[in-house]
Every structure is written in structure tokens, then in C-alpha cells.
Amino acid sequence: MRFFDVAALPVSPWRNGGGDTREIAYSPGEGHGFRWRASVATIAADGPFSAFPGVDRTITLLAGDGVTLSADAVPAHELVRVGEPFSFSGDLPIRASLGGGACRVLNIMTMRGAWAADVRRTAAETTPRAGGSGLLYVLAGTWQSGATVLTAGQGAWWDGDSEGAVTPLAPDSVALEAGIRDVRDMRGRRSYA
To answer: pLDDT-derived band of residue 32, with 50, 70 and 90 as boundaries?
Structure first.
């Protein structure tokens, strides 16, 4: 299990000047692609998202007044509740419109047809499944894994076999859990649910 603190991650500004990204984890795939990628992005201005053909995306509001995501021929979606995930195709030409000032989101991307992510709020202990991948991002409270204590904006991720668990230590502890599984294995041996 690997740990992260978003405040300590390197910042990469977007080419269009509309925000920045802090990469948490990147699991390399075949060629120059990835199997899955997790990051935290700050959306600082209205504008287009970068296209990611063949990729499925799930973003979850972490802080701020929210953002409306829209694309031609699909209904717009307002992302206004912290901790509520929204999934969409990276093929779509998505445009972001801020509800107020800048907002911060957790962004999970998976290669369509090979990998899939299930993102949800949790207040329960998280234990990685054998062969599974995933991430836990602390929204509130205090969590612990081994000797490591995690607070808001921190978390843990794993890729493949990992031992241990991440346990909430206080009644107000809430986190986002992203389970990432290989959907090509129909027997479910590599699933994380």
C-alpha cells in the first residue's frame, strides 16, 4: 500500500490555462497508455476538458461551489455535492462551467473494455482484494493503515496484491473509495467490489 498527501504532489498546469492536475497514481498499460490513472484536479476557469478517447472517467467534487459538465447531444450534469461521483466517456467533448469560484475534483480514468472503476463514499474499513487495484481518499476525519495516520486530503492506493486495511478512527470519518478491476477476466479473479 502506498500513501499520498495531495498538498505535497507536484502540480501540472493545464495547457488551456483552465486549471491544474496533481497525479496520485498511474498504472502503465500496453504501449504508451495506462490501465488506470488517479489524480486531483483544480478547475479554475470555464472551458473544455481534454479529450481521452477510449477512456472512461469518474470525477467527484472534493471542494468548491461545483461545476456543470455539458456536451452536445447529452444532458448537462451539475456536480455540486461533495463526495458524489459522476461517470462519463472521455470521448465526449466536455465543457466545464463553474458554479462560483474554482473547485477541486478527484479524477479516476480507466481504459475502456479492459479496466473499470467503481467510486463511492464510505465510512467503513477498506481492505484491498487480492489482485485488485484501488484508492482511498480521505474527505473528513482520521483514518489509519498500519502506523500511518491519514487526514483530509491524504490517502492510500494499491495496484495488484496489497496487504493491510485502511480503518476509520472517528465517527465523522468519511472517504472516497475507488475500486478498480480488470473487466476482461470474466471469472472475477481480479475483481475489486
So the answer is: low
Same domain, 104 and 120: no
d(CA 179, CA 27): 14
Contact criterion met (CB below 8 Å) for 167 and 173: no
Give which of 43, 8, 13 is closest to 24, Cα–Cα. 8
The sign of the torsion formed by the CA atoms of 131, 111, 37, 65 equals: negative
Q: Are 125 and 162 in contact (CB under 8 A)?
A: no
pTM given for the model: 0.91
Q: Determine phi and psi for 107, rounding to 5 degrees.
A: -120, 115
Same structural domain, 97 and 176: no
- 16 with 106, same domain: the answer is yes
Question: What is the C-alpha separation between 89 and 52, in angstroms, rounded?
Answer: 8
Q: How confident is the model at residue 193 (pLDDT cuts 50, 70, 90)?
A: very low
